[in-house]
Amino acid sequence: MKKRSILISMLVIGVVAALIAAATTATFSDQVTSSSNTFKAGTLYMSVDGACGTRTATAGQYGTDGTTPVGATSGGLDAGPNNPCSLTTAHFTATGMYPGASVNHNYPVVNKGSLNGDLTVTNATVTTDNETACPGATNFTVALTGATQTINAGQTASPVPNVQVTMNQSAGNPCQGVTATVNLNFHLVQSATQPAPTVTIN
Fold it and tell me: Rounded to two decimals, what is the model's pTM?
């Protein structure tokens, strides 16, 4: 029994001595800092029939660098050869319309950003320059195709959005010589499904 007590005491003393030695013994170490890690947001912008419009930063239309609004002197869509884009409003005109006549126009839409986008094209009510004699809403019809679709980053809308404008067969003499106008709104919103962010190890 006495020998067992002595053995236990020696073990305790040994453990305590080892802990004291570990606490007082110097160790080597190394440290590496990973700094300047950057995370850049993607971009979402489009051209419609070769036109980018005249939107500003508050409207969400940014240029190739993701920060400079369209129309700026550098970094915008009009700044480089990789993004040829006229800062105008896309439109088409037709003359010589008559009751029953239709005209149509394709609007190629290109997603020039780095994110996938959902496209929606809508049109306002047709108006004429003589709404009293020839109201646009009752004498003209607008039909859209390809107006709702997803356009992946860097791709062109397929099918190409198309607008068809018809002067209704019921349009009478009061519509002679009038000019009808319709505005189309092309809206691109970030899609729910996106490509995985690109990670580069430098």
Answer: 0.71
Angle at 97 between CA 51 and CA 91, to 5 degrees: 5
Q: Do 87 and 78 contact (CB within 8 A), yes or no?
A: yes
> What sign results for the dihedral spanned by CA atoms 46, 47, 52, 53?
negative
Query: What is the residue-wise DSSP string for 8-66?
Result: HHHHHHHHHHHHHHHHHS--------------------EEETTB-TT--GGGT-B-TTS
pLDDT of residue 24: 60
Residue 16: both structure tokens together: 């305590």
CA-closest candidate to residue 124, choices 186, 34, 52: 186
* CATH of the domain spanning 92-192, picked from 3.40.1760, 3.40.50, 1.10.1740, 2.60.40: 2.60.40
pLDDT tens for residues 28-84? 889 999 888 888 777 777 888 877 654 444 444 544 444 454 444 444 444 444 444
